[in-house]
Design brief:
Layout: E1 3-7, E2 15-22, H1 31-40, H2 42-49, E3 60-63, E4 69-76, H3 87-104, E5 109-112, H4 124-141, E6 147-152, H5 155-166
Parallel strand pairs: 1-6, 2-4, 2-5, 5-6
Antiparallel strand pairs: 3-4
Helix pairs in contact: 3-4, 4-5
The chain binds ligand AR6.
Length: 167
């Protein structure tokens, strides 16, 4: 299958590009962002400093440095503020813009963390179907992308994405 849900640490995944659930400064933080910067090494932060930040829902690409990937695609997800502040559209934009950048850079495989469902508080039951539907429709239009993995850090998160994938 082209689209898989796995349990694991995204910094250990070998593929062309991984997405980073960043913040709008692109200067690092906690959660998966912190883990990616630690694993990539300080060169990643140096490149991020040149990018001038990134708007919520948009995406910017850097090299992968010490990670086992060519690229990191940084996307600030929406902070959940009750659902009436375009959070769902912004989350969809994150996945779509990361996939577009990956395709533009010739990537055939990309891995995503569960964007916005940690520190940013986006409910998993809403986030998982948005991610799955957005990735699925992109894959239909882009046969050149061979593999997309949702890398879940815990079993509960994995269950939500599996259910969205089955449903
Ligand atoms: N591999 C895969 N998933 C991970 C990893 C990992 N190594 N580490 C954590 N996760 P979060 P957000 C999961 O909070 O909600 C940062 O400070 C985590 O369990 O990393 O988008 C940024 O700078 C959860 O399921 O991202 C922003 O300020 C998912 O990744 C803010 O956090 C996302 O959790 C972004 O918050």
């Amino acid at each position: 299958m082209k689209f898989k849900v796995i349990l694991g640490d995204i910094t250990k995944v070998t593929c062309d590009a991984i997405a980073n659930a960043a913040n709008t400064t692109l200067l690092g933080g906690g959660g998966v962002d912190g883990a990616i910067h630690r694993a990539a090494g300080p060169e990643l932060l140096s490149e991020c400093r040149t990018l001038g930040g990134c708007r919520t829902g948009e995406a910017k690409i850097t090299n992968g440095y010490r990670l086992p990937v060519k690229y990191v695609i940084h996307t600030p997800g929406p902070v959940w503020r009750g659902g009436s502040h375009q959070e769902e559209q912004q989350l969809k934009n994150c996945y779509e813009n990361c996939l577009k950048l990956a395709a533009e850079h010739g990537c055939k495989s990309i891995a995503f963390p569960s964007i916005s469902t940690g520190i940013y508080g986006f409910p998993l039951e809403k986030a998982a179907p948005i991610a799955v539907h957005t990735i699925r429709s992109f894959l239909k239009e882009h046969p050149e992308i061979e593999k997309v993995q949702m890398v879940c850090f815990d079993e509960i998160t994995k269950k939500y994405y599996e259910n969205a994938l089955d449903g």
